[in-house]
Every structure is written in C-alpha cells, then in structure tokens.
C-alpha cells in the first residue's frame, strides 16, 4: 500500500487512534492497534496527574461529555514504562503533550527526544484542566511562540491539536507559521449537562465528543482547509466510513477516531473497511 | 460488540425484566461478577451501550436481570424473542471465590442481579454461603425461589411485606453479633454499600463491594468510571471492579 505523508510522518492508512480514547492499548484487540495508521497517546504532562473527581462522564443526545482531567502517569513513567510498549505495536506513535506553561511544554518535548516516538501532538485545547490546555487557544501569538520554541527542540513530526472554539483560524495560521507540520482539527467542545441525582441537580462541565459534534467540526475542517496549507487531521464524531469520507472530501488528509472506539473497540477497523468500500465505489 | 439474538424476555414485576440472549462467545467465558454491555437500538442515540451484570449462564445463553431506569433500559424492555441486540463482554474482574466459607452475600434491590450466578458457583464448589436480600417491598424481590434453592436466605423489606421489616444492613449487623463469615460481598445502592462497608469494616471481615459508575468503554480506555480511592487517586470500576476490596474504597465518597 502506498504511504500517506503528513509532513514527515508516514502512514499506511489515514486512520489514527485519537488521544485519550484507547488507554495505552492494554485492552484493545491487537488487530486494531496494528491496523491503525498511527497511534496518538493519551495526553502526557510533566508530572503525574490524578484527574478530576467523578462524575467524569455524561451522555447527551448522540454525544458524550467527559471531564477526565488529564489523568496520566507523567512524562518519566510514560517514557520508561509505557512508550516502549506502544512502539512495539507497530504503527508510528505520536505523543499528545500538555503543559501548564510554555516551559512545561518545552521540557516535555525535550524529555521525549530520542525515546522513539515519531511525533508530538501539542494539546492546546483540553477543556478539562485549569491551566494550559484550552487557555492557549485564545492567544494566537502565544501559540506562535510556543510552537516555534517546541520546533527548535523537537525534530520529529509536529502537530498542533486545535480547540474548535476561540480564534481558530488565527491559531491555525500561527501554528503553521511557527513550523507545525499538521493540525488536528479538533478537540472536544466545552459543554455542560445537568445531571439529576438523588441529591438534586448537578452541573457536569466537560468536553463534548461523538456524532453530535460531527457537523460542527466538519464545517471547521472545510473552513480551515481554505485558510492553511498544512495537512489537516480531522477529529470529531467519526463513527462510520461515511463520516471519514466526508471529512476527506472537506479537505482533511487523515482522521482520528475517538469516541467510536469507546463504544466498540473494533470500530476503527470497521470504519477503515467501510471507507475502503466507499473509495472503491468512487 | 457482537450480535446476539433474544431468546426470550420475561417481565418480573412493574419495572423488572429478565432478558435471555443467545451469546455463545460470552457464555463460554463469563465468570460470576463480570458484566456485559448491551445496545439494542440503531444509530447513536442513546450513544453508550449499557452495562449489566451477567445474571445467569446456561449453555450458549446468558441472561441479564434489570430494572427500567431511563431510556436505554426502557428500549431494552420492549425487546421480544428473535430481536437482535449487540453485546460486548464479558468485562470486568470476576468476584473472588474463596476456598473456604462461609461467604455472606448482601444484595440491595436490583443489586441481586450478579448473585444468582455467583451463588451457583459457590454451591458447585461446596463453599458455605448465605444471602441477605433486602428490597423496598415484596414486589421488588426477584427470583426468590431460584435463589432459595442455591443458598440459605434472609429477606428484608422496608415495608415489612415480606421477610423481616427493615434494612438488610440491620439484618447483617444482627447476624454479626452471633456469627462471623470468612468473607462479605455486597452489591446494591451506594448508601447500602457504604453502610455494609462500615459494619463489615468494624467487624474486621474481608469485604468486597460491587460498585457502579457511568461507563463509556467498559475496558479501561476512557478513565471515565472513576471512584475515589481511600488513599488518594481514583480506581476504575470497569477494570479494577466491579467488586473492589473494602480497603480500596473511600466510603464517604460513595454517597
Ligand atoms: C458494572 C455494572 C453492572 C450493572 N448491572 C446491572 C444489572 O445487572 N441490572 C440493572 O438493572 N442495572 C445494572 N447496572 C446499572 C445499569 O447499567 C443502569 O441502570 C443503566 O445503564 C441505565 O440506563 P438507562 O438508559 O435506562 O438510564 P439513564 O437514562 O442512562 O440513567 C439512569 C440513571 O442514572 C443517572 N445518571 C445518568 N448519568 C449519570 C452520571 N453521569 N452521573 C450520575 N448519575 C447518572 C440518571 O440520573 C438516572 O437516574 C449496572 C451498572 C454497572 C456499572
Ligand atoms: C474520554 C476522553 C478522553 C480524552 N482525552 C484526551 C487527551 O488526553 N488529549 C487530547 O488531546 N484529547 C483527548 N480527548 C479528545 C479526543 O482525542 C478527540 O479529540 C475528541 O473526543 C473528538 O473526537 P471523537 O468525537 O471522535 O471522540 C479525549 C476524549 C475523550 C472522549
Ligand atoms: S468505562 Fe472507560 S475506563 Fe471504565
């Protein structure tokens, strides 16, 4: 099969497993891990994070709100004990990194040099952490500085994961000018659901994913493909080959599958084969 | 998720159903305490498959015993013989099966669902056992004659319409003044679990609590089914449970 290029990253197919939706592969069928074009790790921070108290999930019509809060083991445990296993699955590994400050992002990038990962996905779009994350996405100049400095220390593939809210095209253009090789479009939408519990109503704030967001992110990909030259990696509500195909039609070069894998761990393979069938039918 | 045919569905009361499925792959592997995820609707609404304990396994069939709570379970309750559902599992850790008993099993309401399979296994292994089964009212007691054949049974209802009047935890406390089991395993509403946890903790008996949480993946992918751990951090009910050792759980955070 011809390889697909996203900047310096070569993929055997356009499907990537989205950050935070496949654990570290422990319980996913091997065929799914081996069959993906690339694997994007859970968001990794400089130090371990416990994540948010429950509730962390709530369901909305065709959607899922999560507020995991970036629970992760931190850079050193990830690099020493987890990354080697991820690399053994075969597809290139892209590490999703989240710093609370520019300095933390840089230390993460430096810390991952030479560890075997093919790329970094800079997470400036997590809606579930107080510092860093989505705050960066309000500030195109800050993103320019951040990406430029990461580019100086990280020689491999470099993607920026955009938030779908805020000055999205300005942020995308800033990332492009600063030397990013691809843009992941996009993370979850800040959202809220009112949970009814025994004790009364409760607000659950988090990021919305799943089929509910597909038309929104599809529009975003369509718009961005007209404003930036960088390859776009679509991500938002893909649960079928048809969804993926629509994103490719709207200008995406590759795509990520997130929530669909939670619903059914074999969904990524099904999506790929449905996409293949669509491509064959023209 | 794999397709499974509905063999039959039986209504067991106002809001309770017993759903029997032809699912050889699941039936072959399932152990007591494990759960499956079911989805019985086309499209993406509801989005998440719903988790249910494996209630019983017979040959290639599994059944789940459930209470109608919201949209998903209401849709399930309309299933008829021959309909197709999607099933995922078995998932989660099986309940511990000690070599020596007695094991006291404490069920609150629909929390009885995983215990039929479990008591059957204890019986088959010759482990002494007793079921304490509490419900609101007579009509909420499910599969009583079947359970009575598997284990000595103490029933409580809140309104006194069957068994002893009161809470199942009161019956447990009282029994503990006279005897000591080797292990306690409880499944039920959070308030009951935390009461069982306190009573059993004071008595110093090895205890497991079967927890519930909203689940998106059922297999450790999303980190969504978090419950506070007693010594900090969060345990993931789908992979570390559903039954978790009492010492792991922060009882105050359960309710
Ligand atoms: C491991 C496991 C095993 C289970 N086994 C059984 C079983 O054997 N039998 C059985 O009847 N049930 C069982 N359950 C519970 C069952 O999964 C739920 O009752 C079911 O998912 C409800 O789906 P629904 O669509 O009908 O209700 P929903 O509409 O999804 O909601 C049901 C209730 O949950 C509450 N709720 C929804 N989202 C949240 C949230 N984020 N935080 C807090 N509360 C929320 C709602 O307020 C509502 O009261 C089990 C659950 C788990 C985790
Ligand atoms: C449970 C969960 C955890 C996630 N964790 C991360 C994360 O750590 N880093 C990140 O950049 N995105 C994270 N995401 C966002 C997904 O990678 C993806 O961008 C988003 O869910 C939209 O795609 P989907 O609709 O296909 O799920 C998470 C999403 C979910 C549902
Ligand atoms: S439900 Fe996803 S980790 Fe438990």
UniProtKB/TrEMBL annotation, chain A:
Positions with a binding annotation for FMN: 19, 42-43, 96, 123, 161, 210, 236-237, 258-259
NAD among keywords: yes
InterPro entries: Aldolase_TIM, DHO_dehydrogenase, Dihydroorotate_DH_1, Dihydroorotate_DH_1_2, Dihydroorotate_DH_cat, Dihydroorotate_DH_CS
Any GO MF annotation of the entry: dihydroorotate dehydrogenase activity
EC numbers, comma separated: 1.3.-.-
The record's free-text note on cofactor binding: Binds 1 FMN per subunit.
Residues where substrate binds: 42, 66-70, 123, 187-188
Record's catalysed reaction(s): (S)-dihydroorotate + A = orotate + AH2
GO CC list: cytoplasm
GO biological process annotation, one example: 'de novo' UMP biosynthetic process
Localization of this protein: Cytoplasm
Domain Dihydroorotate dehydrogenase catalytic: 8-276
Cofactors named for this entry: FMN
Keyword Lipid biosynthesis attached: no
Residue numbers annotated as active site: 126
Primary location class: cytoplasm
Keyword terms: Cytoplasm, Flavoprotein, FMN, NAD, Oxidoreductase, Pyrimidine biosynthesis
Record pathway: Pyrimidine metabolism; UMP biosynthesis via de novo pathway
Top-rank EC class of the record's enzyme: oxidoreductase
Function: Catalyzes the conversion of dihydroorotate to orotate.
Family stated for the protein in its record: Belongs to the dihydroorotate dehydrogenase family. Type 1 subfamily.
Quaternary structure and partners: Heterotetramer of 2 PyrK and 2 PyrD type B subunits.
Protein name: Dihydroorotate dehydrogenase
UniProt source species: Thermosulfurimonas dismutans
From TrEMBL, chain B:
Pfam short name (any one): DHODB_Fe-S_bind
InterPro entries: Cyt_c3_hydrogenase_gsu, Dihydroorotate_DH_ele_sf, Dihydroorotate_DH_Fe-S-bd, FAD-bd_FR_type, FNR_nucleotide-bd, OxRdtase_FAD/NAD-bd, PyrK_electron_transfer, Riboflavin_synthase-like_b-brl
Cofactor binding, per record: Binds 1 [2Fe-2S] cluster per subunit.
Record: residues binding FAD: 50-53, 65-67, 72-73
Domain of life where this protein originates: Bacteria
Alphabetical list of SUPFAM superfamilies matching this protein: Ferredoxin reductase-like, C-terminal NADP-linked domain, Riboflavin synthase domain-like
Start and end residues of each FAD-binding FR-type domain: 1-97
Bilayer-spanning residue ranges: 101-119
Needed cofactors: [2Fe-2S] cluster; FAD
UniProt cross-references to PROSITE patterns, sorted A to Z: FAD_FR (PS51384)
GO molecular function: 2 iron, 2 sulfur cluster binding; flavin adenine dinucleotide binding; metal ion binding; oxidoreductase activity
UniProt-listed GO biological process terms: pyrimidine nucleotide biosynthetic process
Keyword Transcription: no
The entry's keywords: 2Fe-2S, Electron transport, FAD, Flavoprotein, Iron, Iron-sulfur, Membrane, Metal-binding, Transmembrane, Transmembrane helix, Transport
Binding annotation for [2Fe-2S] cluster: 217, 222, 225, 238
Similarity-based family: Belongs to the PyrK family.
Name used for this protein in its record: Dihydroorotate dehydrogenase electron transfer subunit
Species in which this protein is naturally found: Thermosulfurimonas dismutans
